[in-house]
């Protein structure tokens, strides 16, 4: 527009009116790039110094120091730098009905039985049977096989009963169950 005004020797006001532009757009100077770099530098320095500070603390500190940047601009740069903190996961507490009954007071009183599974070489799946004594935290059995049939599991448990004796309780993922004293 300035070149048009210079060639035609017309005033800027007249050229803007003919072209349908505002005069403010002619004199506007972009300051955003320099300001964005300055904000990014300040945010990087502050996050290195204060690792646990989130956006709100950083922004309030910048305001206290004397920077009068808009919070939306600072937040946009904060997100583009990926400085946002991850929210901690709230873990669900397991409610125990009878916490006194869960504690083992002697060896071979309670056993924990659990199955784990894993893939080897991204092809074959292996299942692992783990049996632990609750009181001594000793691993009584750890067997890895492609699959466990019920008969095979019963055979392993019978061998363990012969070796270690019969437990009062066997605890599984589904809870605990009392072993029958008379049933073999």
From TrEMBL:
It comes from Larkinella bovis. It holds the Pfam family rve. PANTHER family: INTEGRASE CORE DOMAIN PROTEIN, LOW CALCIUM RESPONSE LOCUS PROTEIN T. This is DDE-type integrase/transposase/recombinase. Residues 95-184 form the Integrase catalytic domain. It comes from the Bacteria. PROSITE patterns: INTEGRASE. InterPro entries: Integrase_cat-core, RNaseH-like_sf, RNaseH_sf.
């Amino acid at each position: 527009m300035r070149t048009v005004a210079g060639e035609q020797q017309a005033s800027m006001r007249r050229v803007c009116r003919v072209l349908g532009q505002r005069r403010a757009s002619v004199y506007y100077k972009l300051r955003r790039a320099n300001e964005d770099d300055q904000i990014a530098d300040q945010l990087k320095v502050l996050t290195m110094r204060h690792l646990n500070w989130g956006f709100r603390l950083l922004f309030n500190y910048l305001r206290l120091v004397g920077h009068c940047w808009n919070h939306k601009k600072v937040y946009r740069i904060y997100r583009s730098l990926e400085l946002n903190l991850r929210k901690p996961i709230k873990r669900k507490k397991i409610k125990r009905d009878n916490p006194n009954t869960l504690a083992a007071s002697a060896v071979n009183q309670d056993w924990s039985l659990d199955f784990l599974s894993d893939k080897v070489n991204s092809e074959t799946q292996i299942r692992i049977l783990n049996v632990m004594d609750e009181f001594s935290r000793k691993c009584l059995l750890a067997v890895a096989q492609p699959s466990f049939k019920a008969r095979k599991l019963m055979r392993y448990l019978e061998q363990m009963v012969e070796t270690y004796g019969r437990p009062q309780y066997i605890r599984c993922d589904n809870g605990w169950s009392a072993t029958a004293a008379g049933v073999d």
